[in-house]
Specification:
Structural class: alpha+beta
Number of strands: 9
Radius of gyration: 23 Å
CATH architecture: Beta Barrel
Number of helices: 3
Shape: elongated
Length: 208
């Protein structure tokens, strides 16, 4: 009988870490490396005019890397995990015009997107140490355009994404995440320009 009790105690001790790691609820603080690619293209009448001149509608394709910090909280209901988080991304994606004729016409312009902040919610499925999830949120970033069409200001956009998080232990997890952001029409562009961004994040979080 003693051996049975001993076996039961050992079994419970062995199962305890797994049970703890299955709990995704709580506050988390994370950091990530971000690779992003921005696309600024023409649409509407401007796209048609450029097409007639043999110029591609994709005008600028800035890309870059950034570091991001995020803080959030998750709630778990069975296997369902609901969360909300805020993130700040420090970095820059910048580039000149894709077409040499546009570069000459606009006096060698540069487009850059910096200082991105995001507030988002997510919904995930807890599967032991793994949690796939989907996210939706709103971004605010600083857009700067130099050259003949010089402009600078904050722009807003809506983001959607998918991610996968893995619990290394009850406090530490790693995650990979892909998202796309569609920004609002640029002021003064009369809906002739379309701005979007694609992000890939790889990071780690600490849970309290």
């Amino acid at each position: 009988m003693t051996s049975v009790y001993r076996a039961a105690i050992l079994l419970m001790l062995g199962a305890a870490p797994a049970a703890a790691q299955d709990d995704w609820a709580g506050i988390h603080l994370g950091a990530a490396l971000v690779t992003n690619r921005v696309q600024l293209g023409a649409q509407g009448d401007l796209r048609d005019d450029l097409d007639q001149q043999g110029i591609d509608a994709q005008l600028f394709s800035p890309s870059g890397e950034a570091a991001a910090l995020r803080v959030g909280r998750d709630w778990q209901y069975g296997n369902l995990v609901l969360g909300i988080a805020a993130e700040y991304q420090a970095g820059s994606a910048s580039a000149g015009a894709d077409d040499a004729r546009i570069a000459e016409l606009l006096m060698q312009p540069q487009v850059s997107l910096t200082r991105n902040a995001r507030l988002f919610g997510r919904i995930g499925y807890a599967a032991g140490d793994w949690m796939p999830y989907a996210l939706a949120g709103q971004d605010v970033a600083r857009l700067h355009i130099s050259g003949a069409a010089q402009a600078s200001g904050d722009i807003r956009g809506n983001s959607l994404g998918l991610g996968l998080e893995h619990r290394v232990n009850p406090q530490i997890s790693t995650f990979a995440e892909y998202s796309q952001t569609q920004f609002d029409p640029l002021p003064g562009a009369e809906d002739q320009l379309d701005l979007s961004r694609k992000d890939l994040r790889v990071g780690a979080s600490f849970r309290f």
